[in-house]
C-alpha cells in the first residue's frame, strides 16, 4: 500500500501540470478567436457604406439664391435597392424634402421630392445623391440630413449633416494684411536670391582673375629663364678661344 500511495503522489504533479497546459492552450485559442473576430469586424466596417457631404459641412448663401446641398456615398461591397433621403430639421421636427431608391450600381435613381423648390440632381454613375434648393429664404437656414441605407449591409443606417446659413449679402473678406505679408515675404525671398546670384558672380570673376594672374606669372618666369640661358651660352662661347 505504501508504494501505491507514493506512485499516486508522484502522478498528481504530472496531472496538475497537464491540466495547466491544457487550460493555457484553451485560453490561447480563445485569444486567437477574439483577434479573428475583431479583424472580421474591422474588415466589415471598412466595407460598410459611407455617406459624405464633403470636407466643408456648411455653406453661407444669399437670400433668394440657389444652393447645392451635396451628398455622396461609397461602398466596397456594392449596393442593391439603396434607399436615400434628405430631411430638414425644423426646430426638432424632421421634414422630408426628398427620398428615393437606387436599384443597383449604374442604374438611374427613382426619386421623389416633397417641396416645390427642391430638385434632385444626383446620379448613381457618380454615387451622387445631392439636391438643389431654389430661391432660398431665411426660413431655410438650419441643418439638412442626408440619409442612406443599403440592404446588403442588413439595412444599417448611415447619415451626414450639412448646415445652411442664409444672409442678406456675402461679406467681402479684407485681404489687405495678407497681401502685405505676402509682399514682404516675397521681397525678402527675392532679395536673398539676388544676393546669392551676386555672390556667385563675384566668386566667378575672382576665380577668372586669379587664373589669369597665375598664367601671367608662369609665362614671365619662363621668359626670364630663357634669357638667362642665352646669356650664359654666349659667355661660354667667347671664353673658349682663350683657352
Protein architecture, described:
This protein is α+β, with helices and mostly antiparallel strands and 243 residues long. 45% of the residues lie in helices and 28% in strands. It has two helices and eleven strands, in the order αβββββββββββα. The protein has helices at 2-47, 176-239, and strands at 50-52, 58-62, 67-69, 72-74, 80-90, 93-104, 110-113, 118-120, 131-133, 142-150, 156-167. The strands form three sheets. The protein has a six-stranded mixed sheet with strand order 2-11-10-5-6-7, with no helix packed on it. Strands 3-9-8 form a three-stranded antiparallel sheet, with no helix packed on it. The protein has a two-stranded antiparallel ribbon with strand order 1-4. A hairpin with a 2-residue loop joins strand 5 (80-90) and strand 6 (93-104). It is elongated, with a radius of gyration of 44 Å.
Quick take:
With 243 residues, this protein is α+β, with helices and mostly antiparallel strands.
Amino acid at each position: 500500500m505504501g508504494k501505491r500511495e507514493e506512485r499516486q503522489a508522484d502522478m498528481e504533479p504530472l496531472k496538475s501540470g497537464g491540466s495547466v497546459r491544457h487550460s493555457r492552450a484553451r485560453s490561447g485559442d480563445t485569444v486567437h478567436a477574439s483577434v479573428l473576430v475583431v479583424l472580421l469586424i474591422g474588415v466589415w466596417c471598412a466595407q460598410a457604406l459611407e455617406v459624405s457631404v464633403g470636407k466643408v459641412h456648411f455653406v453661407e448663401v444669399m437670400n433668394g439664391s440657389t444652393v447645392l446641398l451635396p451628398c455622396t456615398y461609397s461602398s466596397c461591397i456594392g449596393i442593391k435597392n439603396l434607399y436615400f433621403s434628405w430631411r430638414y430639421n425644423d426646430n426638432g421636427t424632421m421634414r422630408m424634402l426628398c427620398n428615393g431608391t437606387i436599384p443597383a450600381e449604374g442604374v438611374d435613381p427613382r426619386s421623389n421630392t416633397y417641396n416645390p423648390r427642391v430638385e434632385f440632381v444626383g446620379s448613381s454613375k457618380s454615387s451622387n445623391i445631392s439636391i438643389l434648393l431654389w430661391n432660398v429664404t431665411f426660413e431655410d437656414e438650419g441643418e439638412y440630413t442626408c440619409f442612406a441605407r443599403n440592404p446588403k449591409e442588413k439595412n444599417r443606417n448611415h447619415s451626414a449633416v450639412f448646415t445652411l446659413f442664409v444672409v442678406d449679402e456675402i461679406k467681402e473678406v479684407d485681404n489687405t494684411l495678407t497681401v502685405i505679408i505676402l509682399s514682404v515675404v516675397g521681397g525678402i525671398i527675392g532679395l536673398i536670391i539676388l544676393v546669392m546670384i551676386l555672390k556667385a558672380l563675384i566668386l566667378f570673376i575672382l576665380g577668372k582673375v586669379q587664373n589669369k594672374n597665375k598664367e601671367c606669372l608662369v609665362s614671365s618666369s619662363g621668359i626670364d629663364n630663357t634669357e638667362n640661358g642665352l646669356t650664359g651660352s654666349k659667355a661660354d662661347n667667347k671664353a673658349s678661344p682663350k683657352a
